[in-house]
Amino acid sequence: MAEIMEAHGIVIVGGGICGLATALALHRKGIASLVLEKSEVLRAEGAGIGVQANGWRALEELGVADELRKTADLITTYHDVWRQGDNKTTRERYPVRTEFRCLNRKDLIEALAKDLPAGAIRFGCRIATIHDDHPGGHGAVLTMVDGTTMKTKILIGCDGSTNSVVAKYLGLPPVRTIPRPVFRGFTSYPHGHQFENEFLRLRVGGFFIGRLTITDNLVHFFVTMPTPSPGTALSAMDLTEVRDLVLKDLQDHECPAEIIDVVRGSDPESLNLVTKLWYRPPWEVAFGGFQKGAVTVAGDSMHAMGPFIGQGGSAGLEDAIVLARSLARAVDVVDSAGKDDDDREPPREEVIGEAIGAYIRERRLRLVLLSLESYIMGVLLVRSPSPVVKLACIAVLVLLGSKSLRHANFDCGRL
Ligand SMILES: Cc1cc2nc3c(=O)[nH]c(=O)nc-3n(C[C@H](O)[C@H](O)[C@H](O)COP(=O)(O)OP(=O)(O)OC[C@H]3O[C@@H](n4cnc5c(N)ncnc54)[C@H](O)[C@@H]3O)c2cc1C
């Protein structure tokens, strides 16, 4: 192994929503960390992200909720339009009972990053492999793709769902994929749009379409397409070509003009395409080994759950609060042990290991329930389940309080 170049207390791999939130939560508790991000700049693609009350509670704790509220209006209504094969359309409108706003991901990422101390994020730093610090030890040694190495006492993997090196080090199975392309973007209305402040969800001919108002002048949309036929290389196409293809498909399926116009008028710079959806099945979240000594995971690398209930990002924010709170308690224990008895070296490794264990115990049930709800919603939306399976899925969703969005009422507590 190459000579160790640097040593750190806490390293976070990945500067996405969860990695930045974790670094900010630790910073608010007076604990320093270093975020290693493989991109050269903050990654803010992906258009909009819906944040419900649970996410806003976490953003409050991080001290960024008020500034973010100024960027996005409240969404007050869910508006569901289901068009069946026989062209029969069902419409349902119901009020949103808790805080729900659609943020521009860029605003969220920048708000999380801007209060971090200078040098807290290191860009262009891709971790290739992770090794044990020493046999039986708690920390880890990271090797970057350029061969440099770094030692850390605590390692937090926030490196997302695809090829998470930290999840791999922990022995977690790779996340599963669903080949469903999602095309997203923003449409600007300089003179104001005519839509209600609503989340319109439209299901038509294998497409699942969403339109969320952000402000009077900005709307976010997504179009989840049916499974592409083999050979349709969407990812090789220019995003405006993908938009033309999507528009043609929507017209062929007689999609309402108000949706077609939103997609047609979208800002080319804002367009984004994901060709697959990623998830970790709920049983892996229930039984996964999320800890090895002082190494753990948070966010999508722990519990990728696809977009089906719009909770992946907010669950990562909750992880950040709970993990930072737990680690801060451990630091207090270590500090007070040091003050009580100057001759005795505080049992740092054990205390840190216990703090990470407490974080996982606190998060496990919450994450299993979210993953289960998202998984079942995915089965209903993506597959065509038999009537028996469909009935069973609906029964579980009733138990989970899906219709009343029980998941959004969760409070991860104070930082
Ligand atoms: C179509 C779609 C719609 C969604 N809508 C919503 C929604 O409305 N609301 C919601 O809450 N959630 C939503 N989600 C889920 C949400 O986007 C994710 O849960 C969230 O972005 C995950 O954040 P993360 O920080 O855990 O991972 P990521 O955002 O994937 O960040 C991981 C970071 O780690 C970096 N990285 C990876 N590997 C390495 C490495 N080896 N070395 C260094 N850096 C590395 C990456 O570059 C990246 O910046 C949606 C997801 C999809 C696909």
UniProtKB/TrEMBL annotation:
This is FAD-binding domain-containing protein. Residues 10-173, 290-330 form the FAD-binding domain. Keywords: Membrane, Monooxygenase, Oxidoreductase, Transmembrane, Transmembrane helix. The chain crosses the membrane at residues 6-26. Belongs to the 3-hydroxybenzoate 6-hydroxylase family. It holds the Pfam family FAD_binding_3. GO terms for molecular function: FAD binding; monooxygenase activity. Coiled coil: none annotated. It comes from the Eukaryota.
